[in-house]
Amino acid sequence: MTSRRFRLVDVFGERQLTGNGLAVVVDSDGLDTDEMLEITRWLGFSETTFLAEPETAGADYKTRIFTLAGELPFAGHPTLGTCHVWLTETGADSDEIVQECGVGLVPVRRNDEILSFRAPQLIRGGPVSDDDLVDFASILGVDAEEIVDSAWVDNGPGWVGIMLSDAGSVLRLRPDFNRSDRDPIDIGVVGLHAEGSSIAYEVRAFFSDQNGGMLEDPVTGSLNASLAQWLVGSGVVQPPYVAAQGTALGRSGRVCITQDDGEIWVGGRVFDVVEGELAEGQP
User: Fold this and answer.
1) What's the pLDDT tens digit per position in 6-32?
2) Residues 13 and 19 sit within 8 Å (Cβ to Cβ)
3) Closest CA relative to residue 223, chosen from 92, 112, 103, 119
4) Which of 7, 71, 154, 276 supports an S-S bond with 124, CB 3.0-4.6 Å?
């Protein structure tokens, strides 16, 4: 493997080191899928992206997005982090950027220090069955009666949205991370902050890992996108507003939600943290 530069960035943080980390391999030409996955697993971030020249007309760059388990067609914080790295590497001054990835072309906007992606359409919405709600409540460690509202909010990963009575209830959750008796599921939990707060609501994201258990994600772009579509669509909140995530993990993620011509845009800040180089050798 030839020497390849990479950058570590922090996405959605209120300041550096308070959001969700991302590794971006800048020089990815020539790497195959297995090599990308091996690099991703060694780096150990929840996601690593690989930047390349675009293959589709109208795109500014192409990226492939990997988790420790495999490739994703789209993800939120990798989109913003990769866009930031591309802008930094190229010195481009455009405020309208187009990313090529597994789902096709994704528009990204730059407004001062905020990068925003347009929320993708849901592939599954609608009500959650009573049986599923009992199951999800058990995973979260609450009674089903404590769930104020719910909906499928799946834009790819499989998210289900669960609303509790308030932000405090969300932060007090102690989920059962060792569940292995059901199919993999990604659960997003939301609770409103008190009226007058600078934060509209608190978010936590729990997702299935490779071993049948569950993990918590610090700040999740795809989930915040679909939660916004659900909550704005049902009239619970009105953009623009800011959502918080990562508080329970000692982070201070801040996700900026705006709306333009009926479309939800999901934004946040991206901070540079580390620049490095993968040494020559066999992956």
Assistant:
1) 999 999 999 999 999 999 999 898 999
2) yes
3) 119
4) 154
Q: Do 249 and 46 meet the contact criterion of CB atoms below 8 Å apart?
A: no
Beta-sheet strands, E only, within the chain: 4-11, 20-25, 47-52, 61-67, 71-72, 96-101, 104-111, 114-118, 149-152, 159-163, 186-192, 201-208, 214-217, 241-245, 253-260, 263-268, 270-278
The backbone torsions φ and ψ at residue 2, rounded to the nearest 5 degrees and listed phi first, read -75, 160
Single-letter amino acid code for the residue at 183: D
**Buried (b) or exposed (e) across 176-191, using 16+ Cβ within 10 A?**
eeebeeeeebbbbbbb
HSE value, Cβ hemisphere, 13 Å, CA-based, for 21: 11
Cβ neighbors of 174 (< 8 A, separation 6 or more) are: 141
Residue 186 structure tokens? 């990604």
Distances 13 to 9, 17, 31, 191, 273 between C-alpha atoms, Å: 10, 7, 30, 20, 12
The span from the CA of 233 to the CA of 198, in Å, is 21
* Distance separating alpha carbons of residues 19 and 13, to the nearest angstrom: 4
How many CB atoms lie under 10 A from the CB of residue 113?
10
CA-to-CA distance for 49 and 6, rounded, in angstroms?
Answer: 10
Helices 76-90/221-233 angle, 10° precision: 120
**Distance set, CA 143 to CA 82, 175, 234 (Å):** 40, 12, 24
pTM above 0.85, yes or no: yes
Cβ atoms of 24 and 262 closer than 8 Å: no
231 Cβ partners below 8 Å, 6+ apart? 190, 201, 237
Please give the helix or strand (H or E) that residue 227 lies within, else none: helix 221-233
Q: Which residue has the tokens 């007309």?
A: 57
